[in-house]
Amino acid sequence: MLDFDSLLVPVDFSPISASMMDQAVKLASGEEPLVILLHVLDTTLADFATAHGLGSREHVLATMKQQAEGAMSQHKQRFLTDPKRNPKVDVQTIVTEGIPFLEILRKSEEFQVGAILLGKQGNRGGLERLLFGSTAERVIRGSRRPVIVLPVDGADTVAAPVGEEPPAAEDVGG
Fold this sequence. Notes:
- By secondary structure, this protein is an alpha/beta fold.
- The protein is 42% helix and 20% strand.
- The protein is built from six helices and five strands, in the order E-H-E-H-H-E-H-E-H-H-E.
- The protein has a five-stranded parallel β-sheet with strand order 3-2-1-4-5, sandwiched between helices.
């Protein structure tokens, strides 16, 4: 069995990344296992919002950061209060700005992680290539660290804010 003393988990608050957070805590091993939850504030989104008059770039990024830090704190708290968790696993959260795949690669090198953990939905043909081919593919192609890609069952769930139930499929046109 492979041992991973540290795992980097990119978090976009989707059901897939939530599943990967759970898997990371189970996979982390060694003397001082560490799971690093990383959320990247996509600066291109802030630039887009600014270009469309939704506020200054600084204001947009500050708002995005505040929301992300709150959500990351809730995810970390969920781990700390899980009675089934391994108490040896340390969970750290990072919120940073940049282009997501580049920041994932940078942080994986900066922290010398054992592996990057990504999730993917089942076979979806062209649509899967379109959706999976962006950040995840760039991370896989650019990483000097091992990248673990795990399939996620039931990933068709619509993302909901932390602490809320996702809407039923019929409520979102499913």
